Amino acid sequence: MPVHHFTLNGDTVSVEAPEDTPLLWVLRDALGVTGPKYGCGVGVCGACTSHLEGNAFRPCIQPVGGVTGRQVTTIEGLGGEGLHPVQQAWIDEDVAQCGFCQPGQIMAAVALLRHNLNPSDADIDAAMSDNVCRCGTYVRIRAAIKLAARRLRGEATGT
Q: 36: closest CA among 131, 149, 138, 114?
């Protein structure tokens, strides 16, 4: 069985798995990284959204063989020593209800703000449209993204 080496949340990891094993299973079952959630397994719900080389992607449909030598970041590796501004905005805006989709929502929001620090409602809707929240906290998700954007631009420290 092949051994795959990649960077996960800043650390080099090695895992033995068939090339076509979905990365989500490698993360959760082999490496104990449970932030990315299994929602649909076909890349449509967004619960597993993580970053590959800084871009949002779905590890439920990404074979582990495709990340060899690359950088993967999950919600666990997002904030470093503290919370990422998006994570703090999620708390401040009281976004989560059940919380199941929130790691994927946060990772999608971080990817959006990495490229656009002044997103319009339409920009937010487009970037977040593939992340499903069964609790329907979309209004609070949008508010948290706007708060995080203001903070990242240096315009706000509170809510």
A: 131
